[in-house]
Design a protein that fits this description.
Layout lengths: L8 E3 H6 L10 H11 L7 E4 L6 H12 L6 H4 L2 E5 L1 H6 L4 H17 L4 E5 L15 H12 L4 E6 L1 H8 L3 H4 L3 E4 L5 H11 L1 H7 L5 H14 L7 H20 L11 H12 L3 H5 L2 H6 L1 H6 L6 H16 L9 E6 L6 H13 L5 E5 L9 H5 L13 H8 L4 E5 L6 H13 L1 E3 L5 E3 L4 E6 L7 H8 L5 H5 L3 E4 L5 H21 L3 E4 L1 H12 L5 H21 L8 E6 L7 E6 L59 E3 L10 H8 L7
Parallel strand pairs: 2-5, 2-6, 3-4, 4-5, 7-12, 7-13, 8-9, 9-12, 14-15
Antiparallel strand pairs: 1-3, 10-11, 15-16, 16-17
Length: about 675
């Protein structure tokens, strides 16, 4: 074992005199408080408590620099701040016992200095016995005995969790230390701190970082990275952005002489961190949010009041007028099934995060028992599944930008509703592991059928029978959804049929629907009890299923025209006609198209050569072909769906057997 143990001490005072420590910006009040603690006669061992990245080390190094300066009191100038070189200690020892023995010998040097040396500890395990570092058990005992005997002075850093979990429970340690709770700096202070420390990045990368880039970096991290703390998160963004600039230069995407870090690189880095497209990070949201109703109405038809309530809440959140410590928005949607509640939630996910799948849907009918709370936040320690965490907390922790939909909230157990009080009010939840999950970047939507059949003015009174007032008061708004009218259903039918046309076009089919067929769908949905959900089933059963069967039987070819109409004779039968253009005569065929105010840029219009006039005659071929042999089948083939006695449509197989369908290729 080495005889000269002084080489295992890091002399921070000497480093401060040589200018190797971090320059402290701001924190004048905290620095003054640390000096007062060090000058005390008892409990003169300060413990700086705060989460990671908040600036604990920068504050300590600023204190050491002050103690080494001429401005410090003589009592502090005489002291030398040292730290343990843990890496070298571990390298020079072969086992835990040797490591513990050598560490105690090094700390004995500090004890023998008669308070002229101050021990700087970043690792709390040297003071208390932490399970993650059991090899420090003996050094921890030695240090605690030296503290209680007032033989050693310390400056200690720790995060809030370890301070509460270990230090506060040790009465011996608490009798010797004085805590200083460090708060996160404000945005304005963080800009000044980051601007003062950007020189390290400029020197490392050989670039210039303007003040405007520093300001944008702090604003972006304040808006999008709420689960971390200033100033570290803004410094990390600058570091990562400068690295991105170097990569672009190395790939040849930029001129090698480009040596200025612009805000564009910060936007791209934030997009990589959060998954939000760079154009939405970079774009000014004011115009888009001002037109939020128009954008949402392209998908959510007939619920103008619900759309406006949600859009108003989004604008409040983005304008800075809403409490920043709450979710972006929290709403309770009331209405019967199939009126657009879930569709509005999907539209919000697409509008805010450019991703319709950024939607966590939780069916609360599965959470009716008291024990189901653990499924949301995770089981308690020592039980199966503890390592995996909870469904709700883990999903939001890994993907903080999303819409969280609690479906049929009235079915949830009372304990879950109590749990949600904290989520709605403070924008955070603590899981079973003790990790605080940030919900401030989420939109919380709850749906319920309670009072859905009552007039709007009676719904709130009905809700109070199921939910406590303190729960309802924490919501941004209670949104009522009314039954859809026939004109609304016509627009919705156009939207869904246009989506079908897009999918059919992708497989080479040109599906054309006339107006009477659209009316048939509207009538079926209007008389249904399932709202718009019935439309999806109708399209699937009446159009997609027969077309799929014909495709599998190779009875439809690429480029084939498929017509969907109501039988002009019975007015009740829905027909799927699989024929070429030349066989269509004296029929009204109109391609599906959306009204201008409801067209969506992501649903292209399907162009067709089919005439759109009533009784239009087919175009003649410019070069007549020889007459083909007379076919043994009729020139017009069609597949008709006729409701049976019980009102149900026959199976596709039965229809094919009865009609012996063959697709015409005239």
């Amino acid at each position: 074992m080495p005889t000269d143990v002084s080489r295992y001490l890091i002399n921070y005072t000497q480093m401060a005199k040589e200018g190797h420590l971090t320059q402290l910006v701001g924190r004048e009040i905290e620095l003054e408080r640390l000096i007062h603690i060090l000058l005390r006669s008892t409990k003169n061992n300060p413990v700086i408590v705060g989460p990671a990245g908040i600036g604990k080390t920068a504050l300590t190094e600023g204190l050491i620099s002050f103690m080494a300066s001429e401005n410090a009191p003589e009592y502090l100038r005489q002291k030398e701040v040292v730290g343990l070189d843990v890496a070298r200690l571990m390298l020079d020892t072969r086992n835990e016992s040797d490591y513990a023995e050598l560490t105690k010998r090094v700390m004995q040097l500090v004890v023998d200095s008669n308070h002229q040396k101050v021990l700087y500890l970043k690792d709390i395990s040297f003071l208390v016995n932490v399970d993650t570092n059991p090899e420090n058990k003996e050094p921890a005992k030695f240090l605690k005995l030296s503290l209680t005997a007032d033989n050693i002075d310390c400056i200690i850093e720790t995060d809030t969790m370890h301070y509460v979990g270990f230090m506060e429970k040790d009465t011996t340690v608490m009798g010797c230390i004085q805590p200083l709770l460090l708060e996160e700096p404000s945005l304005e202070d963080s800009i000044q701190i980051v601007d003062a420390r950007k020189s390290a990045f400029e020197e490392h990368y050989g670039v210039s970082i303007p003040f405007e880039t520093v300001r944008v970096a702090c604003q972006l991290t304040a808006r999008y990275i709420k689960q971390r703390y200033f100033p570290e998160k803004a410094l990390d963004l600058l570091d990562d952005s400068a690295s991105l600039l170097m990569m672009d230069i190395a790939k040849g995407d930029l001129d090698p002489n480009s040596n200025t870090l612009t805000p564009d690189f910060c936007n791209r880095t934030i997009a990589d961190w959060t998954g939000i497209p760079v154009e939405k990070v970079d774009a000014e949201d004011k115009n888009r949010l001002a037109k939020a109703e128009d954008i949402l109405r392209k998908r959510v038809v007939g619920q103008d009041n619900a759309v406006k309530v949600v859009a108003d809440a989004l604008r409040r959140a983005r304008s800075g007028l809403q409490d920043p410590n709450r979710p972006i928005g929290s709403f309770l949607f009331i209405g019967t099934t199939g009126v657009g509640k879930t569709e509005l939630a999907k539209s919000l996910a697409d509008f805010m995060f450019n991703d319709e799948t950024a939607l966590l849907r939780i069916d609360m009918s599965e959470y009716m028992e008291r024990t189901s709370v653990t499924r949301l936040i995770g089981p308690p320690p020592g039980t199966p599944g503890y390592e995996q965490g909870g469904l709700l907390t883990e999903s939001v922790r890994l993907k903080p930008f999303q819409v969280v939909l609690f479906d049929e909230i009235e079915k949830a157990h009372l304990d879950i509703l109590n749990l949600m009080l904290q989520l709605l009010d403070e924008g955070r939840l603590t899981d079973s592991k003790g990790v605080t999950v940030d919900f401030r970047n989420t939109i919380i939507i709850l749906t319920s059928n309670v009072g859905a059949n009552l007039p709007s003015y009676q719904r709130v009174e009905k809700l109070t029978e199921y939910f406590r007032p303190e729960f309802l008061n924490r919501l941004d708004d209670i949104v009522s959804f009314h039954q859809l009218k026939e004109e609304h259903l016509r627009v919705i039918v156009d939207i869904h049929l246009n989506k079908l046309l897009k999918r059919a076009k992708a497989v080479g089919l040109n599906v054309i629907v006339d107006d009477k067929a659209k009316d048939w769908f509207v009538d079926e949905v209007f008389t249904s009890k399932f709202g718009v959900r019935a439309l999806k089933r109708l399209i699937q059963e009446q159009v997609e299923n027969p077309l799929s069967l014909l495709i599998m039987q190779d009875r439809l070819k690429a480029g084939q025209d498929v017509f969907l109409r109501v039988d002009p004779t019975s007015k009740r039968k829905l027909q799927v006609l699989a024929r070429t253009v030349q066989t269509i005569q004296k029929e009204e065929v109109v391609p599906v198209s959306l009204p201008e105010e409801h067209k969506s840029s992501d649903i292209p219009e399907v162009e067709s050569d089919i005439p759109t006039q009533v009784n239009a005659e087919p175009e003649e071929d410019p070069i007549p072909s020889p007459p083909p042999p007379q076919p043994s089948v009729p020139s017009e083939k069609k597949l008709s769906f006729t409701p049976g006695v019980d009102g149900k449509l026959p199976s596709i197989s039965d229809i094919l057997e009865e009609t012996d369908l063959e697709v015409s290729h005239d």
